[in-house]
Write a structure and sequence with these properties.
Strand order of the largest sheet: 32-33-35-34-36-37-38-39
Distance between the termini: 27 Å
Helix content: 10-25%
Number of strands: 39
Structural class: alpha+beta
Number of helices: 16
Length: about 700
């Protein structure tokens, strides 16, 4: 049905349903909830999950929502995400028969027909059954130039820690007696066929590091050389960072011209890196920008984005530029691209002949290719792609100039394009059939004015005949951190569960993201983060001023850093929202540095050890900001027990504080899936269906998402 009000006309029936208690018996104390897998904490999680299920799964719409999401996630017409590997195309495919997935291979010529003939190389479901493990496939690190053998990364339930096993992808076998690295947060690089550089928790013992070789952020900082046949405790140290670093990781790079480099990246902070070259004589630090992102190797040159103003050899590089750097320093630095005032480089990948780049121009995606010329400069050409879309790089081939791009828009289903940096061509290979009815819907871009006068863009998707009467159910989302851009991607779940039912969908491009380059991010970092929160509220007020909606019909959603954003908006502006979805969030900003991988984000959020930053974190921390006597909207909070990045404790403590204040809330903690989300279609369907019921019942304006 088109009209949202028609769909929710069944509210009279819902009102007749038995009331569900809006809160359960008091939560365990904070120390018990902080024991992630402790019995008392999990018992509380279980009772809160059951209360949420009773409130939302009993809704007659729940099953329809669930089945709709499940069909989307298991649709055989989904575009298989391609990966160039050893001259073939690989893909991880999940469906009803393979919920964990099969890693499969197709010949390039077969794939490019749009109807590839696949051969399964690794069945993750079968592997998990035989091993009696909750394996989730997390990718593979492969030896260049043949991309074989590989180290397959397997995690328990989707956590960041992995187990690595040596695998030959073209034959589909694990190497008997091959490399096997047990569970740890770890990173590896192939030095040669019989030698790995490994960063992991080496533990105590002979040659070990007291307390384990892990940083305060929970990542490795000691890199060792492990030769085939050696036990882990026989590996020889190559380089170590410091326990206050974020992490230290080995990196192997290769290009299509036969050059190969092995580097070690020392992440001093989340945004500042030091790269060292591994040589026969040891390691040598390279002269590179501290704030940068390394993309690959081409013709022996490092291709990187400079996220700060930088100069070398008389050349001044503006922040946001993409450059080519000779690691030995003998050749001058070359600039490929410097964005304009309303532009930002979004993604970069290196092929065998050039560089493929996506650029945001007023947050509208473009695709570009760049090739070196005979004079030592670079020639760039814009790809002929549809306008007003998002453009993402899926993979690039170092054996050729080819790269796969994903192109989509809010109302345009995903398209798979093949670009070539050799000749600047681009052609569409596949297109997803529509997953929802976009007829009668339009996309607009508007601008709100934040508290300091900065203009903030946002996208709005709505019915062409939308009435400006303040009664439109509206869902507003944003991220606002870590220089991550929010772009107009196709979201079939939002399409079916929200747009199809008459809802308005809004994506805000607030500061803290990367929509306008490093300066846009910098404006929302540490004590500047109030700009992020003010920008989001400004977009909400702009929607209200335009009579698109009113607070009773305005819902907001965010996860991870976006979950922090939702928590702050919940506490700073409780009167602006009718519904708040807070996903896998940071909420205790006074203690985030000691929780899970929290210490790694000091560069983004600041530190309690710095007085000015401490005062700011105390002021904005959602957990601290909760107050008795405030009329808060009823939030839906979700997290994951196996999230070893942010962790579930933030969400638990926040919910427990609401419980103590007598504030109604709904809480769902998935028992698997890690920080990035649930790991199979069934769990995704459940979580998104719970959200949809919650939004439907709150957005009607009765304020009773829990049914009581």
């Amino acid at each position: 049905m088109r009209s949202f009000r028609i769909v929710i006309a069944g509210i009279a029936m819902l009102a007749a349903m038995p009331a569900v208690a809006s809160s359960s018996p008091s939560a365990p104390p904070p120390d018990a909830l902080s024991d992630v897998r402790g019995a008392r904490a999990l018992a509380w999680v279980g009772q809160e999950n059951r209360r949420t299920f009773a409130a939302l799964e009993a809704d007659p719409r729940y099953r329809t929502f669930h089945d709709s999401v499940l069909r989307i996630r298991q649709d055989a017409h989904r575009i298989p995400v391609p990966e160039f590997l050893g001259g073939a195309i690989f893909n991880l495919w999940q469906d009803a028969a393979h919920p964990r997935g099969i890693w499969r291979e197709a010949a390039p010529e077969s794939f490019l027909t749009g109807h590839p003939a696949w051969t399964t190389r690794l069945d993750v479901d079968d592997l998990a059954r035989r091993a009696h493990r909750d394996w989730v496939f997390q990718g593979a690190d492969c030896l260049a130039p043949d991309d074989s053998p590989c180290l397959v990364q397997l995690s328990e339930g989707g956590e960041d820690a992995t187990t690595l096993r040596e695998f030959v992808p073209r034959s589909g076998i694990f190497v008997p007696g091959g490399f096997l690295l047990p569970r740890s947060k770890q990173a590896v690089a192939w030095q040669d066929r019989d030698t790995l550089l490994v960063a992991r928790d080496w533990g105590d013992g002979p040659g070990g590091v007291s307390g384990g070789a892990m940083t305060r952020s929970g990542y490795p900082f000691v890199v060792r050389r492990l030769r085939r046949g050696q036990a882990l405790d026989q590996a020889v140290e190559v380089m170590r960072g410091q326990r206050d670093d974020v992490s230290v990781d080995p990196v192997a790079l290769a290009d299509g011209q036969g050059h190969r480099l092995v580097l070690i990246r020392r992440a001093v902070t989340f945004f500042e890196d030091r790269y060292s070259l591994v040589t026969g004589q040891g390691v040598r630090e390279l002269d590179l920008p501290a704030r940068m992102e390394l993309h690959g190797l081409l013709a022996g040159r490092l291709i990187l984005s400079a996220n700060q103003d930088w100069s070398r050899g008389g050349l001044r590089v503006a922040a946001g530029s993409v450059i080519a750097v000779d690691p030995d320093g003998r050749q001058p630095v070359r600039t490929l691209f410097t964005p304009g005032a309303r532009q930002a480089v979004d993604e970069v990948a290196v092929t065998g002949t050039g560089v493929v780049m996506t650029v945001l121009d007023s947050v509208r995606g473009q695709g570009w290719v760049f090739r070196p010329d005979a004079a030592g400069g670079w020639h760039g050409a814009r790809l002929a792609l549809p306008d007003m879309m998002s453009v993402h790089i899926l993979d690039a081939d170092r054996r050729s100039g080819r790269a796969f791009l994903s192109v989509s828009g809010f109302l345009t289903p995903q398209q798979l394009w093949l670009a070539d940096s050799t000749d600047g061509s681009a052609r569409k290979i596949m297109e997803l059939p529509p997953q929802f009815d976009a007829g009668g819907l339009v996309v607009g871009q508007e601008w709100a004015t934040s508290t300091d006068g900065t203009r903030i863009p946002y996208f709005i998707v709505h019915r062409a005949d939308m009435r400006l009467d303040g009664r439109n159910p509206t869902l507003l989302t944003a991220y606002g951190g870590f220089q991550v851009s929010s772009v107009p991607d196709y979201d079939p779940v939002a399409g079916r569960l929200w747009l199809d039912r008459g809802g308005v969908y809004v994506v805000a491009n607030i500061r803290g993201g990367g929509e306008f380059g490093p300066a846009w991010h910098e404006a929302g970092r540490t004590t500047g983060r109030q700009h992020v929160f003010d920008d989001f509220a400004a977009v909400a007020r702009d929607l209200i001023a335009r009579k698109v909606t009113v607070p009773a019909h305005l819902g907001i959603r965010g996860r991870s850093n976006g979950g922090l954003l939702m928590g702050v908006e919940f506490t700073q502006h409780p009167d602006l929202w009718g519904a708040v979805i807070i996903g896998v969030p940071l909420l205790d900003m006074e203690h985030f540095e000691t929780m899970a991988a929290g210490a790694s984000w000091v560069g983004e959020y600041g530190s309690m050890a710095v007085p000015a930053q401490r005062a700011f974190l105390e002021r904005i921390s959602p957990l601290r900001a909760l107050r008795p006597g405030v009329r808060y909207p009823e939030p839906f909070i979700f997290t994951s027990t196996l999230d070893d990045r942010v962790g579930p404790v933030h969400a638990r403590l926040f919910a427990a504080r609401l419980q103590a204040l007598g504030v109604p809330f709904l809480y769902y903690e998935d028992t698997e899936g890690g920080h990035s989300g649930t790991v199979n279609a069934e769990e995704v369907a459940r979580e998104r269906a719970l959200e949809a019921v919650y939004l439907s019942r709150l957005m009607d304006g009765d304020g009773k998402a829990g049914g009581g």
